[in-house]
Structures are given as structure tokens and as C-alpha cells.
UniProtKB/TrEMBL annotation:
Upper lineage: Eukaryota, Viridiplantae, Streptophyta, Embryophyta, Tracheophyta
Entry's Gene Ontology cellular component terms: oligosaccharyltransferase complex
Known role: Subunit of the oligosaccharyl transferase (OST) complex that catalyzes the initial transfer of a defined glycan (Glc(3)Man(9)GlcNAc(2) in eukaryotes) from the lipid carrier dolichol-pyrophosphate to an asparagine residue within an Asn-X-Ser/Thr consensus motif in nascent polypeptide chains, the first step in protein N-glycosylation. N-glycosylation occurs cotranslationally and the complex associates with the Sec61 complex at the channel-forming translocon complex that mediates protein translocation across the endoplasmic reticulum (ER). All subunits are required for a maximal enzyme activity.
Full protein name: Dolichyl-diphosphooligosaccharide--protein glycosyltransferase subunit 1
Compartments reported by the entry: Endoplasmic reticulum membrane
Amino acid sequence: QVDLTSHIVRVLTSLKVENAGSEPVSKVLLAFPNIQAKNLAAIRAFGTEGKVKGLSSVLPIEVVEPSGVPPELTFFSASLHKPLQKGKILHLDVLTVFTHFLQPFPEEITQADSQLVVFQDSSHYLSPYPVKVQTLSIRLPGGRVESYTKYGNTKLVDSELKYGPYEDVPPFSYNPIIVHFENNNPFAVAKELIREIEISHWGNVQITEHYNIVHGGARLKGEFSRLDYQSRPYARGVSSFRHLIARLPARAHSIYYRDEIGNISTSHLWSDSKKTQLEIEPRFPLFGGWQTTFTIGYGLPLQDFVFSADGKRFLNITFGSPMEEILIEKLIVKVVLPEGSKDIDVSAPFPTNQWQEVVPHWTIDN
């Protein structure tokens, strides 16, 4: 199941795997073309053994280099918690997230044009194993579909494109497809995000986030008319985006939104017991290739994110951005600890470059 409703492509692959060999199997190989693997942002695997799919558990995944395979492919290995015996069945769900997968075509459009993008993949599931039966479902964002590769068992129903079922597909089978369709959802790309997390002895965690954002879609061709945009924004600016949404923790407070000029008043805030939602509008709409910078900041209660155990203090907080549907190309997270902090250790769920430094830092507590 491929979700193309955003500029971030999400793929959920549901596999029913049978060990048809004579020996137990402890790993399952997952294959991706190199051109896709370089844009792979995240991969997760969940597995459960048995004829009937039950409660799944997370499986460790690592990059591997098996021998005797095509060099155009990148392989990952999902390690099973216990070997899969001969004749036994494993239900395996693999979630993958890709960036820069959708390519604008044409690459330049006018203010009045809708944005069209191209998606290229295979209608066959690319696997080092033979596949008995397989289907492919592609969810589109709505709007017009310019063209798509048609095979004998291809159907387009509303906003869903279906291929298959295919039976007895051999290993490493690749059946190319191209889908050319309209996608005017925000192609928000943070060229750089600097996220500063400051821990205060006075009971507060202060978050400051500096964004450098560009519209990563088709570049604007020709002049921009604000008069046309203001009179008919959904006709003379359909490919632009006007706002971004940040989902903050429920007890976020003292929230602000500003840029180099000063505070920006075009923002809206909603909150309930579960979340705080901040909708921000830049000073101008963003068309393809346009760029803007801004800063948001907010405070959080110290007791919600810092706890003590065994004579040490621990900060447990989200690593990335609270912005919805944003691609971050470069992320720097700075954690500012109180003076005198020592024996500092960082645990993150993925590899990071880390360094520590002692620098002067002044804070004014209201």
C-alpha cells in the first residue's frame, strides 16, 4: 500500500512469509533499488508467527550485503525473535518512508497552474524470494491523473490505483510503472532546523526552533501577482502553501512565532487535554523555490520531561520537529543543561553526530 497524498511517500508492505526450506530461518531480507534506498528516511518491521495474524512485535533491522545479488539493490535484514521453523508462517509488516521520491513534472509552472508530479516504481514486489500472490494499491491525493502505466489487471477507482493480483512472481522481478498526477499539498522542506532545548532549575523546559524553509515543489515561472492571489487564492495560487501546523505537547505555554522583522500575528492556537495545535502563516505564500525563515518558541513543565533515578536526572523528549508533513534535510538539536552538569550521556533511536561544549548562555526568567 503506497500513500502518495503528501510529498513524503509512505509504504506499508504486508507479507505472509512461509519457510519452504528444510532449515530454520532467523532473518528475512528486504530489497530496495539503490535510487530508492538513498532517499529512505525510515524503516520499521513488525512480525508475528502463526497462520492467523496476531499481536506484532518490533523486529531489529540492519543494512546487510549478501553475496551473489544484483549490485543495483540495497538490502536490509529483519531479525526474527526466534527462528522460523520449516513449514511455519510469519506475518511481517514493513513500514518505509521516503523523501524526494515524487518529482515535479513540469519542473516550472505559472502562478495559475496546478502542480503535477511523477511517481516511478514497480508493480511487482521486489524481493529476493519467489512470490506466490501479490497486489499493489496506490493512494492518490485526488485531483486529476494525467497518465499511469496500464497493464491487463490495472484499475483506477476514485483516488486509488490498483495493480494485480500477480501470481508466481519470480525473485527480483521488476515491472516498471509511472504515475503522473496532480499534487498541490505543501512540499515544505526545512533546509535547516536548529532546535534548542534549555533545561531550567526554575521548573521550565524552553524550546526554541529556528526554521529555514523552502517550497520543494515545481518552481514558479513568471511574475507573481498579489492582486490575483488575494482575489482568487485557490485558483491563482493553488500550488502554493499558506500555513504550517505544529502539534505541541498539551501543556505547552508562552508560545510565540516571529522572524527577523518581529512578531508575526498571523497564527492560530488551539489546545485541549491531549495536545496544543499551532497554525502559523508566513508573511507571504510560498510558491515553488521560494524560501522563508522564522522562529517558534514555547515552554514546557519541567516535571513532564525530566525525572530522577539512581542519583541522576534524565531528559526524555522528542528529537524531531513538531511540524506536520515537513521534510528536514539538516537537523541540529542543542540541549542546554544547567551549569555544573556532568557525566552527560545521550541515547537516540538512530545514529547521530554528537559533541559537547561549554559556552556562556544567559536566560531571563519571567
